[in-house]
Design brief:
about 600 residues, alpha/beta, Rossmann fold, two-stranded antiparallel ribbon, 25 helices
């Protein structure tokens, strides 16, 4: 030991035992002591369920990351100036470059650092200026990763949550207010409600009565979709235009309690059924004709309602029947009793996602339902949220919009547009799909933009050939340096960073590894940060699918106290606003259970009694 001290003193030209010697020893040993202490504390606190990804940055550290980032920028300049165009320069970010991306609040957590074939303790994050995307097969750890990302996000969240696992795990322990739209009650006991008409009324309050037309068009675009490969787009396009007229007609000619999509659906299917004094009701054809007549007599919104009714009236005979059938087919999901029950009032305002930083709006449902009958409702929520963020000027922080099972919405033109501008309006979008094939089916012409223009793309476990091949192409090629055994001259041979088979094996489901490709930067090899390892036990509920270790169970028993016992679903309807109304129309009471309440003019009343 004495010899080591003398050697150390000789190297720096100081005397053993002098003040300068001890200062030098402290300067060199202190970082090592801090590193060892941080490592031990992090390992123990993670095992006990006390650690949080935001804690790692609080340890004192030399400013080496700034120096590394300067070196990385110099290397990029050198590659652009002297190497690119001469040989392949693909490859993953090195260990120091990965460790330089330390996660802290304000960034999106990507995972833990990975180097030398092992996972390290440091959390890695990036600052997002556009949007994010994720490809993950079933069982890849997507849900547990999302729970950690959402729990570490400091701001509001809009979440599409198949199976409700994220909602059940975080809602009762999270610091934000949760509103959960859950038609089938798979995650909460009472569902929150959403009335799309309240979006129209809020727009009228902000921008004036004529804004109702624009928002009725937007609702109709979400409900009636024209497939990108449709041979006869006339039918869905005309049906969409008629739906706009019906929405505006209900808004102006019906009482407040009928301002909802389920009532609009009833009008589309049944029309205005009138029962005469003799008990005889109108036929379906007469009921629909009466609806058209009432709309043609509604002059509100400068004739927008009349124009929609005229287009339907002109599409007579078989053409009109096809248009009506298209509209009824694409709105049939509004007949589901559980859906109707949550679409008549509102428990929240979508504007709060932008004006507040402590709101979580979650939509949950079974996976099959989100892919099938509930997909229009998911699309409606997604689109109305995007439109609201564009229209509301006030902003407080960024809202993380997590759109799981994104291809299940079908082709959504609004998503294609919003990705380019969502960030500037206050939304940080994270889209999720199982594989590239599903994205190609939903977006045959534009599927590549979802991942190609993202700041970062998560690639979790996959065994899908097209997805693995695409990732291999994104990673590119690198040049391997070889020397001739006789002349010792350098030769360069290009090889793929990872071929398709290597991608599948590196991202095997049980490995815990993921790849993150970045815009303008080298890809990262990282480790998953599942919530049941990364978060404190007080930030999530015990997960039955992942048995907790003994130390975490003890900590949960000692310290876990849920902040709330139920997810908030209190009713908070939109403020009453004035919209154009037909003064010559009054509301008639229903004469039977299957008769729709509708406004009647005096002439219509006389006709009903004559019948």
């Amino acid at each position: 030991m004495q010899q080591a001290a003398q050697w150390f003193a000789a190297q720096f030209g100081v005397a053993v035992g002098s003040p300068t010697y001890y200062e030098l020893v402290g300067t060199l040993v202190a970082p090592l002591v801090i590193f060892v202490a941080r490592t031990l504390v992090t390992i123990v606190s993670r095992a006990m369920g006390l650690a949080h990804p935001n804690h790692y940055r609080l340890w004192p550290c030399l400013p080496w990351r700034s120096i590394v980032l300067v070196g990385i920028n110099i290397r990029r300049w050198y590659e652009r100036a002297f190497v690119m165009g001469k040989r392949a320069t693909g490859g993953f970010t090195g260990m120091l470059g990965t460790l330089a991306l330390l996660h802290h609040p304000g960034k999106v957590l990507l995972g833990r650092a990975y180097a030398l074939g092992i996972g390290l303790l440091q959390p890695v994050g990036v600052k997002v200026t556009r949007h994010l995307f994720m490809y993950a097969m079933t069982g890849a750890g997507k849900t547990t990763t999302l729970m950690t990302i959402i729990a570490t996000w400091l701001g509001s969240v809009f979440l599409i949550d198949p199976k409700g696992q994220v909602t059940r795990g975080l809602s009762a322990h999270d610091w934000r207010r949760w509103f959960v739209i859950d038609p089938y009650l798979i995650a909460v006991a009472v569902s929150a409600c959403f009335n799309a008409f309240d979006c129209i009324k809020e727009a009228v309050k902000r921008d004036g009565p004529q804004a109702a037309v624009l928002w009725a068009i937007r609702i109709s675009h979400a409900l009636v979709v024209t497939p990108p490969d449709a041979r006869t787009p006339f039918f869905p396009d005309t049906a969409r235009g008629f739906l706009v007229g019906v929405i505006l007609h209900v808004l102006t000619a019906h009482p407040e309690e009928e301002h909802n999509l389920p009532f609009v659906r009833d009008l589309i299917v049944k029309g205005y059924r009138v029962v005469g004094a003799d008990g005889q009701a109108t036929t379906p054809e007469e009921a629909h004709a009466l609806l058209l007549r009432m709309m043609l007599n509604n002059p509100a919104f400068d004739g927008a309602i009349q124009g929609a009714a005229a287009a339907m009236a002109n599409a007579s005979g078989e053409t009109g029947g096809n248009v009506r059938a298209t509209l009824q087919e694409q709105t049939k999901w509004l007949d589901i009793p559980e859906v109707r029950a949550i679409l008549c009032t509102s428990s929240f305002s979508l504007a709060e996602l932008k004006t507040c930083d402590d709101i979580v709006l979650s939509f949950t449902g079974p996976v099959f339902s989100i892919r099938l009958e509930l997909s229009p409702l998911v699309r409606l929520l997604t689109n109305m949220t995007a439109y609201t963020f564009e229209a509301v000027p006030q902003k407080k922080g960024q809202c993380l919009s997590v759109l799981d099972e994104l291809p299940s919405q079908g082709h959504n033109e609004t998503l294609e547009v919003m990705l380019a501008v969502a960030r500037s309006y206050g939304q940080t979008v994270l889209g999720i799909a199982q594989n590239i094939e599903l994205m190609r089916l939903a977006y045959p012409k534009s599927w590549g933009m979802f991942s190609g223009e993202a700041d970062a793309v998560f690639w979790l476990a996959t065994n899908h050939d097209e997805t693995a091949e695409h990732l291999s192409g994104v990673l590119g090629k690198k040049s391997l340096v070889e020397r001739d055994r006789y002349t010792w001259q350098k030769r360069y041979r290009d090889a793929e960073v990872l071929d398709t088979d290597q991608v599948k094996r590196f991202l095997s489901p049980n490995s815990g590894r993921l790849i993150v490709t970045r815009a303008g930067g080298r890809a990262l090899r990282l480790m998953h940060e599942p919530h049941f390892k990364a978060l404190p036990v007080c930030r999530y509920a015990a997960d039955p699918d992942h048995r907790e270790a003994l130390l975490r169970r003890i900590t949960r028993w000692l310290f876990d106290r849920p902040r709330k016992h139920a997810v908030s679903a209190s009713s908070a309807p939109a403020d009453t606003v004035q919209v154009p109304n037909n003064d010559d129309k009054t509301t008639a009471s229903a004469m039977a259970d299957n008769v729709i309440t509708f406004p009647q003019s005096s002439a219509t009343k006389e006709r009903s009694h004559d019948d």
